[in-house]
Every structure is written in structure tokens, then in C-alpha cells.
Fold:
Amino acid sequence: MRHVRAFVAFWYDFIVGDDWRVAVAVVAALAVTFGVAAAGIPAWWVLPVTVAVLLPLSLWRVARTARRPS
Structure:
């Protein structure tokens, strides 16, 4: 059981990492990509737009919390 718990903990840490919001946004972007592609619309642009929006927001959030006095 210890190995199973370690395996699940590794994958949770690998996928979710430090920010669960980014992980949720990526899953949502993949779902939107699937929906757009299923509708017959080219969907290549969804994930790059998601990264272009998420990366600055994530960096801003980390920088904001790093500037706060402890």
C-alpha cells in the first residue's frame, strides 16, 4: 500500500504541482480544444492562447505573494 500511495503522490505532484488553478485551467483548455475540434473548427490555437494567458497570471500571482512581508 505504501508504494501505491507514493505512486499516486508522485503523479498528483507532477500534474498539479504548485498551483492547482493552473492544472484546472489546463484540463479546461483541453476540454475546450476537444469541443472546438469536435465542432469541426480548427483548434490548434486554443492551447497556445491558454498558455499565453495563464503564464503571466501565474507569474504575477507568485510575484505578488513573494513581495508580501512575512
Observations:
- The chain has three helices and no strands.
- The mean pLDDT is 91.
- The radius of gyration is 16 Å.
- Residues 46-67 form the longest helix (22 residues).
